[in-house]
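Example for tutorial group B:
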């Protein structure tokens, strides 16, 4: 193993120890930020070229300093002092800036000088600081609310939705999501939930008073008369078609000692009277029997609401009906029918469901785009939801930043950052060389002017 590799491992161990001591938490496993891409490699080559340029300038001013000093000792003239002073200051500036830039990413010359290799050592602290900075300046409720208010989401969303092609797109996406959700759900689970919910709700709710009120209103409005008309008409038609059956039934119930012709005459008489009664009841709206039906229904409606025995009987009947397997199977099969209907409607672009959703989206978009009240309401919903998320989960969001940075490999992170900003940092070295040379020249000139 090379000395550089050993120093890298020692540096990693030291950084891990520092992170654990600083936070009091076990250091997360290191991982790379990302692999170096072709763009990253191109940036690294640019950094190396700038390093060569900056180092070349350092070598140039060093050479100038040597030549100027030699020329001065050889009696070339006073001008050599100015050149030598400028070159000397340029070397100092270049070396100082080289040390500063290098100290950000590694120990200069591999020497563990204090406060060097700042990024590898302070990476975890930088992550914590970055998380706190983001939390305080970007995840503040007031900041989020002001930013969203300035954006005007309600009006923008409304204008976008008001476009037919956008409404079509949203409708298609909603249909796809609905089909996906219905496909994921297992029919047996949904059927069990629906059946249990309906049964439990029906068991907990007393239905007799509600039925009584409904029946009372139906009778008061005369809504039951059509039912009575239908029953009377069907009874009349049935009697006409089954006259022999009715007369046979009457004759079959006669005593055995009566003559057969008497039984026949009695049966015919009973049939004719029954047919006459049904016919009159069908054709006479004010027939006494109809009045009796009205009174019976009104009394029954009252009993359903106030009579405890009647209400108890209805509840027992309800429990018996709900407990039958046929009813449970019907409840369970309801989901399958509803699911098939919804899936078919979602797949059909011209279905009533999708057309109504599209029309609703267009209408909503137009209202949001033109109605300030609707815009304010939508903006308030969005702002409230966003503020709730950032204030409730701010710690989780900032910890995501902190933990992610803490999980990066220190050496890889340092090289990654250097690849992205190293070229600009090398300009600092170049500028330091130039500025140092100018400063040295100015200082030497002022010193000579005052006879120092």
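The residue assignment follows.
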């Amino acid at each position: 193993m090379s000395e550089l590799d050993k120093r890298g491992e020692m540096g990693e161990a030291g950084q891990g120890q520092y992170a654990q001591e600083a936070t009091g938490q076990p250091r997360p496993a290191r991982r790379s930020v990302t692999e170096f891409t072709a763009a990253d490699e191109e940036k690294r080559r640019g950094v190396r070229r700038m390093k060569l340029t900056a180092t070349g300038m350092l070598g140039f001013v060093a050479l100038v300093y040597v030549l100027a000093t030699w020329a001065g000792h050889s009696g070339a003239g006073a001008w050599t002092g100015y050149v030598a002073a400028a070159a000397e200051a340029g070397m100092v500036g270049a070396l100082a800036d080289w040390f500063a830039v290098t100290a950000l990413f590694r120990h200069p010359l591999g020497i563990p000088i204090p406060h060097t290799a700042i990024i590898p050592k302070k990476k975890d602290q930088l992550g914590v600081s970055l998380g706190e900075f983001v939390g305080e300046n970007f995840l503040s409720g007031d900041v989020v609310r002001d930013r969203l208010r300035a954006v005007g989401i309600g009006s923008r969303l409304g204008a976008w939705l008001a476009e037919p092609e956008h409404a079509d797109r949203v409708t298609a996406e909603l249909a796809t999501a609905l089909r996906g959700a219905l496909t994921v759900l297992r029919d047996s689970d949904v059927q069990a939930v629906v059946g249990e919910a309906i049964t439990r709700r029906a068991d907990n709710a007393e239905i007799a008073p509600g039925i009584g009120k409904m029946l009372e209103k139906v009778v008061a409005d005369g809504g039951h008369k059509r039912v009575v008309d239908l029953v009377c008409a069907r009874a009349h038609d049935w009697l006409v078609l089954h006259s022999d059956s009715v007369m046979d039934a009457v004759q079959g119930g006669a005593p055995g000692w009566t003559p057969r012709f008497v039984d026949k005459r009695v049966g015919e008489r009973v049939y004719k009277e029954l047919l006459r009664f049904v016919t009159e009841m069908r054709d006479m709206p004010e027939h006494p029997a109809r009045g009796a039906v009205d009174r019976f229904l009104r009394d029954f409606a009252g009993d359903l609401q106030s009579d405890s025995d009647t209400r108890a009987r209805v509840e027992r009947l309800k429990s018996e009906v709900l407990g039958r397997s046929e009813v449970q199977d019907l409840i369970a099969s309801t989901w399958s029918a509803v699911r098939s209907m919804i899936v078919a409607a979602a797949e059909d672009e011209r279905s009533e469901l999708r057309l109504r959703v599209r029309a609703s989206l267009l209408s909503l978009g137009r209202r949001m785009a033109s109605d300030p009240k609707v815009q304010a309401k939508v903006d308030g919903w969005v702002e409230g939801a966003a503020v709730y998320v950032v204030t409730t989960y701010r710690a989780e969001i900032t910890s995501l930043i902190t933990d992610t940075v803490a999980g990066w490999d220190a050496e890889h992170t340092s090289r990654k950052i250097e690849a992205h900003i190293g070229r600009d940092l090398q300009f600092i070295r170049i500028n330091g060389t130039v500025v140092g040379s100018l400063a040295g020249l100015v200082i030497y000139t002022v010193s000579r002017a005052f006879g120092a």
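Confidence is low (pLDDT under 50) at residues 1-32. Compare this with the pattern of hydrophobic and polar residues in the output above.
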